[in-house]
């Protein structure tokens, strides 16, 4: 659902009248912002079925609006088809069915991706269109988050806010690889260049996270038009942890507009009013003793509860919700422990200096538009090496850099 101006919606629902009782309240708001002439964001809230979606389209000529709307529609339909399976897990959660829920969610996102990609291939005026996608699925006392792109999902709990998802951008990959600090990434033009998106290329990486909910939790899903203007988690917590959720979200949207409103602005805030989880049934996995490993960018602990993906793995690396540097170290440690967690669907194992140079040059050519648009995903290392023109561009840029640096052999990445 898109809007040419601003729209606010507020909804409340009890998901079950039998234990486990989970009562949710949700508010959504979308705004065209101060620069764009139309809204390419789409969003959906359904507290009754327990899923909430934010998508930020890209592509121009209304193609971005179409891509985001298609993604929301396909995910909604896919999840609705499995409502019986989701309800069964809510009533009697166990590890086997938990993995089944993850499969349902991931397949819903992949189906949306395939639909958007196929239409982009068939229709010339929509070639290259795509969208980010964040999906929150609440079933029983648990939340599952599917994430693609650079929209974000935050968990607010015990007076703190923490980003659950990882930005699928060149800047974030460089942070994980230790080539860029968290502070540098926040202002780098590379933060606008996606390495993963719905519908842009034939393949897509889907990041899944899992949260065991508690009464009082609040979860924010938002496009970059909102979170770009709130780089400090503490400020997000300040607006959303107290008072009515619709008022806090409305304040953040207005502040984003006052600070520039360079993009469409969309946010959904979900509040857990009641949460009474049933006993965990692990009879299908009696030897399960290890905690699940933490997803990249997810704090290990908030208060006394764990935040974790579903797949069982090694003991998670240490993390501190209050320390940005510790969060960066956590991301690098997680990436080192499991290289497959890097989300580079175009086939790259890492971002090379050459690719960074090309990205920086592309961003410079975009000029003032660099802060308000996303470009195509980065090519893989193999593609860069197989593209003579790209190699020539990189060599030319490297030569320019060397000349400016007085002949230094090292390029600035």
CATH H-tier superfamily of the largest domain: PPM-type phosphatase domain
Helix content: 25-40%
When the domains are counted, the total is 2
The CATH first-level class of the largest domain comes to: Alpha Beta
Gyration radius, in Å: 21 Å
Summed up, the helix count is 12
Order of helices and strands: EEEEHHHEEEEEHHEEHHHEEEHHHH
User: Do you know the CATH topology of the largest domain?
Assistant: Phosphatase 2c, domain 1
Secondary-structure map:
Layout: E1 7-14, E2 22-31, E3 41-46, E4 51-58, H1 63-81, H2 83-91, H3 95-122, E5 130-131, E6 133-139, E7 142-148, E8 152-157, E9 160-163, H4 170-176, H5 182-187, E10 207-212, E11 218-222, H6 224-227, H7 233-240, H8 245-258, E12 265-275, E13 301-302, E14 305-308, H9 324-337, H10 353-366, H11 381-386, H12 388-404
Antiparallel strand pairs: 1-2, 2-12, 3-4, 4-5, 4-6, 6-7, 7-10, 8-9, 8-11, 10-14, 11-12, 13-14
Helix pairs in contact: 1-3, 10-12
Verbal overview:
The protein has 413 residues and is of the alpha+beta class. It has two domains: 335 residues, 4-Layer Sandwich (Phosphatase 2c, domain 1); 52 residues, no CATH class. Helices cover 35% and strands 21% of the residues. The protein is built from twelve helices and 14 strands. Strands 3, 4, 5, 6, 7, 10, 13 and 14 form an eight-stranded antiparallel sheet that branches. Strands 1-2-12-11-8-9 form a six-stranded antiparallel sheet. β3 and β4 form a beta hairpin.
